Amino acid sequence: MTKSQDLYILLGGIGKNICFTSCINHLGKINIMSPWPKVFKNHPNVNFCYDLEFNPIIDNTNFLNKFSNVILVEPYDPYFLKNKIHLIKNFRRLCDVNTEEDIYNEIYFTEQEEDEIQNIVSTLEDYVLVQFIGSDEGQCETDFVGTRGLIKKQAQKIVDILNFDLKLNVLNVFSTDDLLSNTAKIKKTKLDYMNYAHLLKYAKGFIGIDSSLNHMSANKFCDTKGVVLWNDENVIERFSYNKNINLITNTPRVMRFDVNNIIDNFKKIVG
């Protein structure tokens, strides 16, 4: 049996997987196994992306033998934990990618996906994206130490100002429509997690937290900027992007912010 290219196995959340895309063009044609296969499905240098929900070791003992090398890439290693290094730079270090290129990600869309997203964009007019919780979290009613999500009361106030004062449609990503009121309604059957990255390309801006929307904004094909809210200044160097305005909480490790300051900084972005 002729062996195909290398297989890179990735774990973790959407944002972490998106950051690996910065390495791919330096690795040649590769295969990927990920819990978020749609991140990689259109990349020109990804031969095939397998869904990690399919367990090759259990379901097919010969599966891994198809590949020249099988590489588990885990960037949260001791070097990353001991040094203030950006996640993308640590991915590059682990993959022996030597480049002076800026920190960015690469997310690709097909012409059909472009047509589909334009149909949605045409119904929204001027819109912004917001993300106040992680993709695996619920909306917080109260703030507490360590959370990266914004409490519902503050999140709702931001949405209301964007909607009523700035006259912008607000898309609340990775959330259900009933968590916050006055957000634009799009049938969830039309959207998957990578549609948000595509919608971000045409948004006026975004307001987010330390989560996937922040990493989607660093797509080299996306010019949209935003305001990102952080609960700890020590994580900013590891996960933030200079194109955005990064604000640190007023209370260490608790997500408490002056909403007016958030809006004032957002206005700088949208002009």
Structure characterization notes:
- With 271 residues, the chain is of the alpha/beta class.
- It has two domains: 7-94, 3-Layer(aba) Sandwich (Rossmann fold); 111-270, Rossmann fold (3-Layer(aba) Sandwich), CATH 3.40.50.
- It is 32% helix and 14% strand.
- It contains ten helices and nine strands.
- It has helices at 14-24, 56-59, 78-82, 87-94, 111-124, 152-165, 193-200, 212-216, 233-239, 259-270, and strands spanning 7-9, 30-34, 46-51, 70-72, 127-130, 169-172, 206-209, 226-230, 245-248.
- The strands form two sheets. It has a five-stranded parallel β-sheet, sandwiched between helices.
- Helix 1 crosses helix 4 (87-94).
- It is globular and about 60 Å long.
- The mean pLDDT is 88.
Specify the helix fraction band: 25-40%
| Assembly annotation | single chain
How many angstroms separate the termini? Answer: 59 Å
Q: pLDDT average, as an integer?
A: 88
Assign the CATH superfamily of the largest domain: Glycogen Phosphorylase B
Count of separate structural domains: 2
Shape assignment: globular
Structural class: alpha/beta
CATH overall fold name of the largest domain: Rossmann fold
Order of helices and strands: EHEEHEHHHEHEHEHEHEH
Can you identify the CATH class of the largest domain? Answer: Alpha Beta
The main sheet comes to: 5 strands, parallel
CATH architecture of the largest domain: 3-Layer(aba) Sandwich
**Helical element count?**
10
How would you write the strand order of the largest sheet? 6-5-7-8-9
Number of strands: 9
| Rg, Cα atoms, Å | 19 Å
Strand proportion, as a percent range, falls in 5-15%
Low-confidence stretches: none
